[in-house]
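ok trying again, last paste got cut off:
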Amino acid sequence: MVGDHDKITAMINLLTNEFTSLPQSESSKVILVLVFVSLIVLVDWIVKFVVLV
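nice, full thing came through this time. structure:
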């Protein structure tokens, strides 16, 4: 679990750094980062649920 947290943190940092360099408006960047973070959390939750079943 600790390794997963580090991977998720690294992914969030990567996405944040990549999107800040794009020539889009700030609100578009925030929305995209939130979508990606939500997707990562959702996939993590699904994997935990499937493992428990």
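cool. The CA atoms of residues 22 and 29 lie 8 Å apart. Residues 26-52 form the longest helix (27 residues).
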